[in-house]
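If you are new to this repository, start here. Below is one unmodified record pulled from the training split, so you can see the exact layout before writing a loader.
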Amino acid sequence: MGFTKLKSQSGAHESFFNYSSLQLSCLLIENIKKKIIPPSIRKTIKFIKVKEAMVGFERETEMLIEQLVIGPRELDVISIFGMPGQGKTTLAKKLYDHEAISNRFDIRLWCRSSQSYDKRALLFELLCRTREIDDSTKIMSNDELAEKLYRSLKGKRYLIVVDDVWSPEAWDDIKRPFPDDDRGSRIILTTRLESMATYAMISLGPHHLRLFTEEESWMLMKEMVFKKDNYCPQELEEIGKKIARKCGGLPLAIVLVAGLLAKHDKEELYWKEIGESLKSKMQGCMDIIESSYQHLPVHLQKCFLYFASFLEDQKVPVKKLIRLWIAENFVEASTTSKSLELVAMDYLMDLIRSNLVMMAKVNSLGELKAVHIHDLVHEFSLVKAKYGNFLLRINDQLVTIFPSSKVSSRHMNIVAPASEVSFGRTITTLRFIPSVYSPLVDLDLTRSWKHLRVLDLSSVKLSKALVYALQYLIHLKYLELQYSDYIPYPICNLKELETFIVTGIYHKTCIPNSIWDMTSLRHLHITCLHICQLFEDLDNLKTCSDLVINHGVNHQKFMKRLPNLEKLSCRLYGSGTAFSKFFPAFDSLSQLNSLKIGVSGAAVDPCGFEDFTYPSNLKKLTLVYLELPWSKILNIGRLSNLEVLKLENHAFTGGQWDVKDGEFPNLKVLKLKNLDMSKWTATDDSYPSLQQVVVQGCWELKEIPESFGSKFTMQLIEIRSCRNSVVKAALKIKETQIEEMGNFEFKVIIFKWKSSRLQRVV
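And here is the target side for that same chain:
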């Protein structure tokens, strides 16, 4: 049945939405744009207040009521999306039953779509709510039923809630009989899928629910457990807050646990038992997560279950996750020219849009850097992987993850602590769970480990014998080590290796030149990696970190062997003596979009930079310790694609930096750290796209350019450890942005040293 009346909902996960006393709120993180109502009209409107008590987010709920009541005359759709159990239906019910809504609309209808969408049942249900159904209606075709519903709604102002929509096809079917008569009719749609919410929207963007804060979680739990008096005994409050915190901000989890606590006497011992066995009490949540998981295509199910290999509450770096997926053969090559990394990123964004995976960290350009999953979703992934023969726990630290959709019991992947690696099976992945200590590991890699594709030893210490045995793992695609001794020359036997990461190496002699013979490499990150002669092009290499460039080598020829390099971090080993054209020929790297250049040893003589040009596609540039005169920044200012510029630790020296009209045309983020300049000027037409400025440790600087106050694009200025005059200049810019530009979203963040600590003061 694709349709149920609101008051007849049942089932474990449905019970969450039947608590009429629950004062759940909208949990939105995306603001409705204020442009829906012109400012002149907005001032004359007395906003509708939500009369019912709510657990937080009164302002966001008022905004949704406003959109329903005061929005456009055309039919409008308000789409609400969020992860399972987050309160989408509860929010829709709050809006549906609100006095301001019930008094405004001629007809209000509620339907539930769900995954098992039944078009005919849905049409009958809606018709029953609008008019009497006779025998002739029961034999009508679907098209005739839709026409009859259309005529029933024609000319009326209606509100229809369509709960739990899963597919565009279902939505197109559902909305077809709803007329648009310019009478201010509204549809509220709830879904777990961002793509579905975006597909259905008409005017404003979809509303994304966020998780409860710790305070809101405790308020909701306390209200449910103690009902009317809402008083919690002091001896239960601390353990109660811990239980609420363990629910991770998920309303459904809070409701389920509160139901358990409310059924028994309010005793501290019982509450502690509930807190310790919390995960086993969450079957209702698991059922809901299961339905979201089953909706994923097979290739995304594999990628999702891979999160079981990470620790609970761990923020997973996006780059590492994507590289592991690729090494596990989870990512299919694109039929277009799109790289495997971009295809994998599409997979990740699909998981985020499904609301099973959440964003954890985004950089200044809005690029996703880390993700995480809710504790209950993580528990689900562990259980699902285990029973699918994808995951095995030997203890709380040892898990096994699957290599493919069809898994033999003899081919398993392991994520383990060092003390527990003793396995007689043939496995394809071995990863060690991070721990406080880095234990020594010594494995016989020539036996059951020879089929490994992924080997992550970044959290353990390695014996020399194990490092020498790496050469026999010829199927490896991903290898990550923490090691400070010599890596043997035969490492080049790993012809299929795509990602090679080594930390802890600080001497050139530890790195064999044979590394440059590994032509399958896509990502190479090794501390203190020196360039040498290349005999073949490394066409697959995308990223390379901590490359050391000496002035005596033919770096121009070396760079030309890396035609598809996209990201490079390198150090110039300076001698302090003058020589011409020391600076590498980075302009030959036509695909390079991110470049970081630092200096080791003596400062590089600036005479070698006269004719230097940067790659035209460069989007991000970081310069450290170069000690160049400000005159050498002209070429950087002309880069039309540059979006992020970081100048750190005397990258440039001199008392004054003058920025002219038209320079840095597309720059969005500028960070200046530990520079010795005292004066910084910029014209009104320089930095035309600038959004964020960070100034840190520039103690000689007296102020920042006043012209920042008149830029429409500016969003943020952050000041750390600078003179008071710089702070005053930033606050003056904020005043101009707000009073003259009307930019009320503009922020200034100030950090100062207080009590031997750097603290935020504004």
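Two things worth knowing about this chain: The mean pLDDT is 78. The longest helix spans residues 724-739.
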